[in-house]
Amino acid sequence: MYKKMTLILFLSCLCDACTESDRDYVWKSRTVNVSAYNSVEWQTDDEPSVAAWGDTLKPGMKTVAVSQDLLQLGLEQGTQLKIKGLKGIYIVKDRMNSRWKNKIDIYMGNDIEKAREWGMKEIKIEYRVKRKANTKTE
Questions:
Q1: pTM score, two decimals?
Q2: How confident is the model over 55-93, as pLDDT tens digits?
Q3: 33: closest CA among 128, 137, 130, 125?
Q4: Fewer CB in 10 Å around end: N or C, the chain?
Q5: Which domains can be identified in the chain, with CATH numbers?
Q6: Separation in Å, CA 49 to CA 42, 114, 118
Q7: Using CA atoms, how far apart are residues 23 and 10, in angstroms rounded to an integer?
Q8: Which residues contact 125 (CB under 8 A, 6 or more apart)?
């Protein structure tokens, strides 16, 4: 009985900790241009599997690159996002050249044909950012 109560208390605290940390974040949305890219030199650089922040990209990862103007909105390295029409959570692991604006690139590993089929679309995304602290003015 004591072990059951301890386990229940532990799980309760664990769940509360997760919920509390989720309260620190908010999901925002934005419509952006969405294209796709691959780990090939002619699309990236001489190290196509290494992202701009040094993360190693591997086929099958759900990651994206973001245009630099989106960094100011909170879409920085490690940000979670959802792409309308696609399943799962994607993670920002790369950033694009400064010439691009309001754009994300979905990482599609080495599947160049899949990236070409995707093309360019305007899609609504949702991204998770840290909630700003409420400040009161007196």
A1: 0.75
A2: 888 999 999 999 999 999 999 999 999 999 999 999 999
A3: 125
A4: C
A5: 26-130 (2.40.40.10)
A6: 12, 18, 20
A7: 20
A8: 29, 30, 31, 32, 34, 81, 82, 83, 84, 104
Kindly report, residue by residue over 34-51, the tens digit of the pLDDT. 999 988 766 666 666 777
Q: Which residues contact 106 (CB under 8 A, 6 or more apart)?
A: 34, 35, 36, 37, 64, 83, 86, 90, 115, 118
Question: Cβ(36)–Cβ(106) under 8 Å?
Answer: yes
Across-strand partners of 94? 65
Do residues 51 and 76 lie in contact, with contact meaning Cβ atoms separated by under 8 Å?
Answer: no
With contact defined as beta carbons under 8 Å apart, do 64 and 94 qualify?
Answer: yes
Q: State CA 85 to chain mean position distance.
A: 15
